[in-house]
Amino acid sequence: MNKYEFIAEESGIRVDKYIKIDGMPRSQVQKLIDEGNVTVNSKAVKGSAKVKAGDVIEVTVPDAVELDIKAENIPLDIVYEDEHMLVINKPQGMVVHPAAGNYEGTLVNALMYHCKGSLSGINGVMRPGIVHRIDKDTSGLLLVAKTNEAHLSLSEQIKNKTAHRHYICLVYGLVANKKGIIDAPIGRHPTNRLKMAVTPTNSKNAVTHFEVLEYLNNATYVACDLETGRTHQIRVHMQYIGHPIIGDPLYVNKNAYNLKGQALHAQKISFDHPISGERMEFTAQPPEDFTQLLDRLRNEM
């Protein structure tokens, strides 16, 4: 394990913002705090605790646990690959990384087989290479890092909004405004822990830009661009404005079209290559269920 010690030079700064270790993203710092590996004057603290000048901050980084995820020969739709990274078109129904109840059949299991273990380790044992996620029942483009250097660059681009993620979706009802911005904070739902919700309590800012692409039969074909990347963001925001995504099994009480999951697809992603700096953009067509439903709604007009 590695240990780091800091002596606070000023007061009033949050612990999670004070700690800066080369190559370590804030999410990893927060994880160390949550696991009790950060102390101030020998006492474990929360990330929100504020230091005082002279405080001794100690950070313990445990040795990496040997990766123990089963590599599985699952076909991948690889849109782009080099020695630094991949762009994957994830199918609807595939979980991105192992978690309780889903330790096999995930994108990570497939990546472990394809990349022979050559994936960045920044996000830990359960999420090697995963720079960002999309929901199980959302299809579309994902960035995967093979090296820590690539991972840090891609993560920073998402954080700094220089990487752009463009989604398309089919929602219930006719969206009144052809363009708009949904600026509403998202946090855990107060009563259903599986859900997220627009709430002022324990939430984070969330901003979605939307544009109507086409009006359909009591439905709307919508494009969404993420300014932030909160869990279930587009699903929650579209429900918040009264137009939930068709087929959403969590945020809609009906499934009038018998879809396997929500009609939401990460269609386009653009970013600077993490090593060369070249601007790159990739597009993936939506799955058959999405296009069939779109055709059906058009024909019902």
Task: Describe the structure in your own words.
This protein is of the alpha+beta class. It folds into three domains: 2-61, Roll (Structural Genomics Hypothetical 15.5 Kd Protein In mrcA-pckA Intergenic Region, Chain A), CATH 3.10.290.10; 66-160, 2-Layer Sandwich (Pseudouridine synthase), CATH 3.30.2350; 162-301, 2-Layer Sandwich (Pseudouridine synthase). The protein has six helices and 16 strands. It has helices at 15-18, 26-34, 107-115, 148-159, 233-240, 288-299, and strands at residues 2-7, 38-40, 43-44, 56-61, 78-81, 85-90, 139-145, 164-172, 179-183, 186-188, 196-198, 203-204, 207-215, 219-226, 264-272, 279-283. Strands 5, 6, 7, 8, 9, 13, 14, 15 and 16 form a nine-stranded mixed sheet that branches. A four-stranded antiparallel sheet has the order 1-4-2-3. It has a three-stranded antiparallel sheet with strand order 11-10-12, with helices on one face. Strand 13 and strand 14 (219-226) form a beta hairpin. The longest helix has 12 residues, at 148-159. It is globular and about 70 Å long.
